Prior knowledge:
Helix content: 40-55%
Radius of gyration: 13 Å
Organism: Romboutsia maritimum
Protein name: Anti-sigma F factor antagonist
Number of helices: 4
Family: Belongs to the anti-sigma-factor antagonist family.
Strand content: 25-35%
InterPro entries: Anti-sigma_ant (IPR003658), Anti-sigma_F_ant (IPR014237), STAS_dom (IPR002645), STAS_dom_sf (IPR036513)
Structural class: alpha/beta
CATH topology: Transcription Regulator spoIIAA
Shape: globular
Order of helices and strands: EEEHEEHEHEH
CATH class: Alpha Beta
Oligomer: single chain
Keywords: Phosphoprotein, Sporulation
Amino acid sequence: MIKHSLDNKNLLIEFMSTELDHHISNEIREEIDDLLSAKQIKNIIFDFKNIHFMDSSGIGVIIGRYKKISSEGGKVSVININQRVKKIFDISGMNNIINVYDTYEDAVSSL
């Protein structure tokens, strides 16, 4: 469901599905939490280039990982977000706690 890479304690998560919703949120949550348990990770960058739809379960996946990472002094960022998903970020208030960037390089330079 996800691809990931780790660079200097920065975890890049790329969603392989086009939807981040209740159908797959538990599986994705478990995959990410397994990575967080197994590796030393300070920051997470979520790449939304494939995501066209996100529901409240998807919001929960992102916010839950935000709480874990921020409680340890890290940051969570999002890149490659389309207008439809950005609207969900804006309406839900996620854009107030999670930074949105155009590129991976922009996100990394802000950490």
